[in-house]
Each structure stands twice: as C-alpha cells, then as structure tokens.
C-alpha cells in the first residue's frame, strides 16, 4: 500500500482529494500546536487498510464481484470504531479520510476508541433485499479478522442501517460459535441495540445548535434555521429544534427543497414525507433548489446531506451566522477559510455529529455489561457529554482565536498525541 519514493516522502493509494484535505487540516493544527514531527508523521497515515473482493450470487443466478474496504486510522486509545457505507463512490481515499476524522471525533468526545471506516463500492438501490444480505454477509466474512468487540466495532453509515448491522452481528457470531452483540452498534433494540441510537446523531446536532446560539449571543426569540438534508439526521435535528422554539424556514432532500420564511410545521412535514416520500409539494411552502437553499437568509445553517456541499464556489454567497455540520465533511478547506473571513462560525462535523458514535459507545458498553439503560438515561448521558465537548471547543476557540474546527482538532489531536507519547514506540 505504501510506496516510498524518497527518504522522507511516502506516497499512498489513499491520497485522494478527500484524504489530502483531512491531512491538510492535521498539518495546520500540528504546526499551530508545535506537534513533534515524528508523532505528526505517524498520525498522517492509516495504521492499516484492507481491500477485499466481495463475490455475490445475484437473484438471477449470476455472480457479481464488488470491492470492499476497511481502514483503521489509529487504535491508540482503544478498539477501532466507525461506520460502513454502501455507495458507488466509495474508495480507499474517502474511507481513509473518514477513518482519520473518526479518530479525532472519538478523542474529542473522550471515548476509548480509535477511528475506522469501511464500505463497499456498489449501487445499493439496485439490489434486492436478498442480494444486499448476501453482499453484507460475504463482506463481513472477508474482513472478519479485523472485527471483534475489542478490535473493531462497525456501525451504520450511508445506505446501511440496523438490519445491515444485524446481518454483520449474525455472520460474526456464527463464525465464532456464540452470540456477540457488541461486535456492532446501531443494531435493533431487540437483539442488543440501545434505546436512543436512531435519533442520536440528530439529537447531538440539535444540542450543538443550541449551545452555539447561546455562546455567540444570537439575539432572537426564535432563531431561523435552514436544514439541508431531511433524512434521519436532518429530520431529527429539525424536529428537536422546532420543539425548542426555533423557526425551521427551509429543508431539502435529494429531490429538492421547500421554503417558508415564517417557518415550517415540522411535525406535519414529517407526516407528509412519511406518506409522499419527499418534501416537495408540502402546503404553505415554496419550492427552492438545493443550491439556492444554502444561501437563504437564516441564523443557523445545518448541512446534513452529503459531503462537499459548501465549496469555494458558493461559500461567499452564504447568508447565515452559524453553520453546524450534521454531515461528514460538508465544507471544503477552501470554503472554510472564506467563511472564517466572512465571520461565519462553523461548528465542525467531528463535534456536531458526534452524537451517533457517543450513543454507539453507550450501546457497546451496555452489551459488554449485559445491563441496559432507558431512553431517558441515554439521552441525559448524551447531552452531558455533548455539552461538555461543545463548551470545551467553543471556549478554546474564543480564548485562542482558533476557528472552532481547529479548536476541536487541537483537543482531539492533543489527546491522541499524549497517549502515543506515553505508550511509546514498539519495539
């Protein structure tokens, strides 16, 4: 995987645009904090990466072969933790980038995990349920040497869900000869999942919005919020903020967006989407294109769709005061600098969407102890941990004049660096 082209400069197959962007963020904060050069170099690359072929018997009797990945960026603080996504654009660079961000996210939240990520390059919407199950089980068997509740614990991600996790858990358990609930998180409650896990990421984003609005003194009785992406994360965020008295003025999904400057009725909208499958056509709203939705006037913008949505091309057109990143990597590094110059505060993804991995940690702990918590207990613990991390990042950002993204990275990277320093280099 590594080809050494000079004494100082290794090159890697994972060095795609996504991964190089994550490296640039690390390089920036490493220089700012004066990180030891050799430690810095160790953190710039994944610890290990596995590429597998995944042959699957299709419903018509033919066999198709897909490519799967699993990357561990760092395991200094504990077992690897990270989602598995099914998407045609999955590649080694994207997975390596997300594994690195997961390392910083877990360290920032104080969780005893390292960062991992996995995926299969596939168009999942073209598969039947049976084909998806066979794909999942074969992929699990191909990466099984990496998996285990004390080695690597997958979770759902793009186009995977609790059923996917149930299949992974079952495949792993059959291979080891006994049931191992804690080998995955995000699975159904009936087989060891945690209450509160489904809403956890959106709930964490909503917590961060409220903390940021209070910290930066947004003076409004009903702050206006635009949510890009009305899937699980965006819809939960919108619902909870609506309940808290915020005015959700626009939302969007893959088909387009809707806008009402006086605020949308979110409970009715959720019922409408459940029936119609999209937000367009909802009464008392006007249609808006996804690209235009990002530039609508608001107090808080929540990008909760795909990565790379806020770029150098549109960053200067944004008309919000705070961005809270519900998605992974929605803002490019170039856009981040433009937003900083405009005075727009960006609460970064490694903080804002960390609710999912935090409740995944709760699920893992409950499974290991065989002692389960109520949904109220889960939500209270989540709010405590998210609140502590938000306060630490925002206070460091204000005190040090670092962008919130760099403040979050500084906290996460410094915790990994200290652990590596204490553990030393073997042999």
TrEMBL record:
Q: Which GO terms describe its biological process?
A: L-glutamate catabolic process
Q: Where is this site: Important for catalysis?
A: 157
Q: Does the keyword S-adenosyl-L-methionine apply?
A: no
Keyword field: NAD, Nucleotide-binding, Oxidoreductase
List, for all copies, the residue spans of the domain called Glutamate/phenylalanine/leucine/valine/L-tryptophan dehydrogenase C-terminal. Answer: 194-424
Q: Which GO terms describe its molecular function?
A: glutamate dehydrogenase (NAD+) activity; nucleotide binding
**SUPFAM superfamilies, alphabetically?**
Aminoacid dehydrogenase-like, N-terminal domain, NAD(P)-binding Rossmann-fold domains
Active site (record annotation):
117 (proton donor)
Residues recorded as binding substrate, renumbered to this chain, are 81, 105, 360
Q: Where does NAD(+) bind?
A: 201, 232
Q: Which Gene3D superfamilies match?
A: Leucine Dehydrogenase, chain A, domain 1, NAD(P)-binding Rossmann-like Domain
Which family would the database say this protein is a member of?
Belongs to the Glu/Leu/Phe/Val dehydrogenases family.
**Protein name as catalogued:** Glutamate dehydrogenase
* Protein's organism: Candidatus Obscuribacter phosphatis
């Amino acid at each position: 995987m590594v080809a050494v082209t000079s004494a100082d400069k290794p090159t890697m197959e994972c060095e795609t645009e996504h991964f190089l962007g994550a490296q640039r963020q690390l390089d920036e904060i490493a220089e700012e904090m004066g990180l030891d050069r050799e430690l810095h170099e160790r953190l710039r690359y994944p610890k290990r990466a596995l590429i597998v072929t995944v042959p699957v018997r299709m419903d018509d009797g033919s066999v198709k072969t897909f490519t799967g990945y699993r990357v561990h960026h760092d395991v200094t603080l504990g077992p690897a933790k990270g989602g598995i996504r099914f998407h045609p654009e999955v590649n080694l660079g994207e997975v390596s980038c997300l594994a690195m961000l997961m390392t910083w996210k877990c360290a920032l939240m104080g969780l005893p995990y390292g960062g991992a990520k996995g995926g299969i390059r596939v168009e999942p919407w073209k598969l039947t349920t049976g084909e998806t199950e066979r794909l999942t089980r074969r992929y699990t068997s191909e990466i099984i040497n990496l998996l285990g509740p004390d080695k690597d614990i997958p979770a759902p991600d793009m186009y995977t869900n609790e059923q996917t996790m149930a299949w992974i858990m079952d495949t792993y358990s059959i291979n080891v000869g006994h049931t191992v609930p804690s080998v995955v998180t995000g699975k159904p409650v009936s087989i060891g999942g945690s209450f509160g896990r489904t809403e956890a990421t959106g709930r964490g984003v909503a917590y961060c919005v409220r903390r940021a609005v209070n910290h930066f003194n947004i003076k409004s009785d009903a702050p206006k919020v635009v949510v890009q992406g009305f899937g699980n994360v965006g819809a939960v965020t919108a619902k909870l903020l609506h309940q808290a008295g915020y005015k959700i003025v626009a939302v969007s999904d893959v088909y387009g967006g809707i806008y009402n400057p006086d605020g949308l009725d979110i409970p009715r909208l959720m019922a409408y989407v459940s029936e119609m499958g999209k937000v367009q056509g909802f009464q008392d709203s006007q249609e808006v294109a996804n690209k235009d939705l990002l530039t609508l006037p608001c107090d808080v913008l929540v990008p909760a769709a795909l990565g790379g949505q806020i770029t150098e091309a549109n960053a200067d057109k944004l008309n919000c005061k705070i961005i809270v990143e519900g998605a992974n990597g929605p803002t490019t590094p170039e856009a981040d600098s433009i937003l900083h110059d405009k005075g727009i505060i960006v609460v970064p993804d490694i903080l804002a969407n960390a609710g999912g991995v935090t409740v995944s940690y709760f699920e893992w702990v409950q499974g290991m102890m065989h002692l389960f918590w109520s949904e109220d207990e889960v939500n209270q613990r989540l709010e405590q941990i998210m609140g502590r991390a938000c306060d630490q990042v925002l206070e460091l950002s204000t005190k040090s004049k670092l962008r919130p993204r760099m403040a979050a990275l500084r906290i996460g990277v410094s915790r990994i660096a200290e652990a590596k320093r204490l553990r030393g280099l073997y042999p």
